[in-house]
Amino acid sequence: DGFRFDLMGILDVDTINIIEKEVRNIKRDALLLGEGWDLQTQLPLEEKATLNNAQKMPHIAQFNDKFSDGTKGSTFHINKRGFAFGGYVDCNHLQYIASGSLLSMKETGLVLEPVQSINYGEGHDNMTMWDKLMRSNEESEEILKKRHVLATAMVILSQGIPFLHAGQEFYRTKQGNENSYNANDETNQLDWDRKEKEIETVNYIKGLIA
């Protein structure tokens, strides 16, 4: 059990730590995670509950966009591709994100322990990985699927907490919709026929998790 702070960056470090302490008094092993994006508020940078201040909130996990960008590429720029999608990523940076984005590894490190890093490639926001691949890469479908599996494997096997989007294991698509919160069921539903079609990949991902 746990709690996810949506847009956690609008809150301050002290408030988050107080909440964390109170929650531990009720349930010691609760998972607390949040979106530590740097949002425009009146708070000074050093007081914001953001990913860059993760070391000040050692028991809070945060979505790690450095991992996502290094793996699949930019969420907001379709043609900027990460390592798994065929883009260039420095080897040292790959080692860094695969090891949990630790502060001890480089000056731009983020977290004290890998358990603070939520490693992800896609989620309910923005475009799915398959849709990004289809729009940013002209390789064959066979190669695109291998790239997708590589990105998902990096999420699962890297140090940190793996985060998988429902349907990611069978190349979920939302027909290219980048913000489907108000889209119809046809866009947002899980295509279970697609799961059966891609059952070999589904089983492979299950094996990685096991």
TrEMBL record:
Coiled coil location: none
Domain of life: Bacteria
PANTHER family from the UniProt entry: GLYCOGEN DEBRANCHING ENZYME
Descriptive protein name: Pullulanase
